[in-house]
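Rotation project, supervised by the postdoc (A.L.). Task for the rotation student: set up a whole-complex structure prediction and record inputs and outputs verbatim in this book. Inputs entered:
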Amino acid sequence: DGGITQSPKYLFRKEGQNVTLSCEQNLNHDAMYWYRQDPGQGLRLIYYSQIVNDFQKGDIAEGYSVSREKKESFPLTVTSAQKNPTAFYLCASSMRGADQPQHFGDGTRLSIL
Amino acid sequence: GQQVMQIPQYQHVQEGEDFTTYCNSSTTLSNIQWYKQRPGGHPVFLIQLVKSGEVKKQKRLTFQFGEAKKNSSLHITATQTTDVGTYFCAGRGTNAGKSTFGDGTTLTVKP
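Outputs recorded:
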């Protein structure tokens, strides 16, 4: 989706390192989400934010952290506490409201060196 | 917590055959959304169903929401190679603040 930009597309992490995945949207959406997708698996929610300066844990928040200082930005940090970080990470945004369709970025593929 | 189950996990069809994926929830849903993810791509929103028994069509795709609002289906008539990908449903329980995605059904189409 052209309105959501995730970077980088591919990322490699060494053991014990923290890495930050970028997600920027210019859709003027209030809500933003981070999902993890493993091969052949569905989307598992890591964190979500309905408004600036507020965010909630999803189903698999352990080992991850986020911030929401600006409406258009929702970076995700994968900490060294996340023991199995290799996955495809998808960022999404939507208008405010629990039933709004989500628009996804192209994703970041994270691998461990 | 809320669970949304999708079956089958994989479906292989010959081009021209029909395809159906089913989504079942343990709780009553306020709405159900369907997304398609092409191989190597990201999920793209297809449609949302809100009313009990609702049926919506998009060309060869037919979406249904069950009378009890606990299940939904996506049916594709006469599949084409462009239909390949993974189809996800996402449902929000009536008391939930967010939607939960199913694990998806991956469709492959043999020409």
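Student's summary: Chain B touches chain A at residues 1, 6, 9, 30-31, 33, 35, 41-45, 48, 50, 88, 90, 92, 96-104, 106 (CB under 8 Å).
Supervisor addendum: DSSP finds no helices and eleven strands in chain B.
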